[in-house]
Specification:
Blueprint lengths: L1 H15 L5 H21 L18 H20 L8 H6 L5 H20 L21 H26 L2
Helix pairs in contact: 2-5, 2-6, 3-5, 3-6
């Protein structure tokens, strides 16, 4: 049932985008939001505030940045693009005080992996089952790439809110 829904969602996207390939749309959205992540992280007036947490906010902007980069480099770069990237998800949340320059470099590396992988992906691949069973249920590559784009956007909003909350 869930797999059928994934195909239906993909067909809706495809029918609305007769001349623009879905892979191009996903690539554009992911790269746009990675650039926005770079802008958000660079916009902190005080670099130490990137790592600050406050009240119920348990993840710093820096850790969310590392998490987003690790997530995309793993699922798009390593799983789909065979980049060889080795993810350390625990470190995405446990590392602290990574210099701004290193965070920005990580975002750039992620954007390069996303762009290269998606540029080499054939449109038909979106209808195939994603090679890694992530949530205990088979899903199409198109559905999972859409999930990754929305996941990035969700955490990007958190980074923006975090910056406006703590960097005063």
């Amino acid at each position: 049932m869930l797999l059928t829904r994934h195909f239906i969602i993909l067909k809706i996207f495809q029918s609305k985008q007769s001349e623009t390939l879905m892979i191009d749309i996903l690539s554009e959205l992911l790269l746009r939001d990675l650039e926005k992540l770079k802008t958000e992280i660079s916009s902190f007036k005080n670099e130490k505030k990137i790592w600050e947490i406050s009240g119920e906010i348990k993840n710093s902007a820096g850790n969310l940045c590392l998490h987003l980069c690790g997530n995309l480099q793993h699922f798009i770069g390593a799983v789909l693009g065979n980049t060889g990237y080795i993810r350390n998800r625990d470190a995405e949340f446990s590392r602290k005080n990574v210099p701004l320059k290193e965070l920005l470099s990580e975002i750039d590396n992620t954007a390069k992996a996303v762009e290269k992988t998606l540029k080499g992906l054939k449109e038909e691949k979106l209808q195939e089952i994603f090679p890694s069973n992530v949530f205990g249920d088979n899903m199409t590559t198109g559905f999972f790439l859409t999930h990754l784009a929305t996941h990035l956007n969700y955490h990007l909003g958190q980074v923006n809110y975090h910056r406006r909350l703590v960097d005063i």
